[in-house]
Amino acid sequence: MAAPVQPPYTPVVRAGDWVIVSGQLGMKDGALVPGGVLAQTAQAVVNLKAQLATMGATVNDIAKTLCFLTDMDTFPQFNESYAAGFGSARPARSTIGVKQLPFGGAVEIEAWAYLPAGAAKKKASGKKAAAKKSTAKKSAAKKPAAKKAVKKSAAKKVVAKKSAPKKTAKKSPARKKK
């Protein structure tokens, strides 16, 4: 059995400080999702986010999208689904009507994300640091009994020190007032 044919392009590439995602269709498991332009747009955004994630980027890093629709009459539905998928991110965008898209798709979205090469590493290490802090907080929350025992023994020492007789120090003759 022959290996599956690979498309003659790369789904996502880094070019200096840019992460460029090839056009994403509303496909899942090798087939277009049912539900027309609304569902295909939502899935195309999911696919776009997945490609960005492989490079350490998010939709918040996108500077520009280029969108293709086979029916410009579906623009309002496309726009609704696009806005929902992008949340508060609002990159520059062009939307172009085309005759056809591969696999009979109704929508295709490509993106250009700006992510300086060092920023992806910082994001990744920031996530790791946040995970470590979260783990540390959880383990600290699991140890209150040990802290109470330490506080009780410390309190006993304080009581013991208070009940011990005080020694009075004699003033040295050199410190007497003249």
UniProtKB/TrEMBL annotation:
MF-aspect GO terms: deaminase activity
InterPro entries the UniProt entry points to: RidA_CS, RutC-like_sf, YjgF/YER057c/UK114
Location of the region described as Disordered in the Swiss-Prot/TrEMBL record: 122-178
Record-linked SUPFAM superfamilies: YjgF-like (SSF55298)
Any single GO CC term annotated in Swiss-Prot or TrEMBL for this entry: cytosol
CDD domains referenced in this protein's UniProt entry, alphabetically: YjgF_YER057c_UK114_family
A Pfam family reported for this protein in Swiss-Prot or TrEMBL: Ribonuc_L-PSP
Gene3D superfamilies membership: RutC-like (3.30.1330.40)
Family statement drawn from the similarity comment of this UniProt entry: Belongs to the RutC family.
Protein's name in the database: Unannotated protein
Organism, as annotated: freshwater metagenome
